[in-house]
Amino acid sequence: MNPIIPMEPIRCEEIPQGADWIAQVKWDGVRILTYFDGQGTRLYNRRINERTHQYPELAEIQTYCNARSVILDGEVIALGTDGKPSFHKVMRRDGIRRLENVSQAQKTVPITYMIFDVIFINNESTIDLTLRERVNLLQEIIIPNEHVQLVDSHDNGNAMYEVIKQHGLEGIVMKDLNSKYVIGGKEKQWQKKKYYRDTIAVVGGVTLRDNVVNSLLLGLYDQEGRLLYIGHAGTGKLTRNDWLALTEKIVPLVKNDMPFVNTPARLKGAVWLKPEVTVKVQFAEWTEGYTLRQPSIQAVVDTPVDYCVLE
User: Fold this and answer.
1) DSSP for residue 87
2) For residue 5, pLDDT beyond 80
3) In the predicted model, is pLDDT for residue 202 greater than 80?
4) Strands 124-125, 112-121: parallel, antiparallel or unpaired by DSSP?
5) Residue 163 host element (H or E)
6) Count of domains forming the chain
7) Burial letters for 206-232: b for 16+ Cβ neighbours within 10 Å, e otherwise?
8) Could you tell me the CATH number of the domain that includes residue 218?
């Protein structure tokens, strides 16, 4: 089984209406596809980076799936102290590189796999089946447990969005029950509406306090491949240890010239970097000058920089 790039929703402002549209929670986690060929199980993220060892709870697929072979699509989440999905927390699991740390992480950061699609089952592709048919298949083959759940579907997108707002969750995904699964595609048959906004940005510079990074200068690439400065952030969910690790990470990236094509508002004390580090940033809105208002760093991620494009 060769890993694939999963189907993605497009952004929308108006929630699609109609009897064939369902609404699902947009989970603030890590997209993970599970591959089982009848012999072994492998996990890959949307960038086709393997994550099998990071989530051993999902490796024994026979404990939650009765298919002889299967490819499942879903989101791995971890709950914060407020009971809501925490991207920063799940990244503590996703970012593990030393296998000896996995066992302890299972205890401190429990995860749940929220499954919402199946694209291969019992040696046959299901991508040409309708979503309605694929959801029915999931009901037949998935056995929910402590770490695995099926994503619920709701027929009223507007009502679902109001619930999301009340609980401060990320947003909803609207899906057409007649839609096929388009590998590697962004399709209008799946549409997402976020309650809060976020983006993956490139770190083009930092500021330091007592020789430790305390603020990031952020950028996104335009259609011509130029890195545009979009704001700076020094607050968010990074811990002291996260800032120390980031300080070590940037050492080989320091450069003399500024990578941004426009001049940042914050220049004093800036240390310029080769743009290789990416972070997830939550923010309130875009300003008229196209910078982020109230940006908050959620996590350092491994997203390639060419993914960080201004939409």
Assistant:
1) H
2) yes
3) yes
4) antiparallel
5) helix 157-167
6) 2
7) bbeeeeebbbbbbbbbeeeeebbbbbb
8) 2.40.50.140
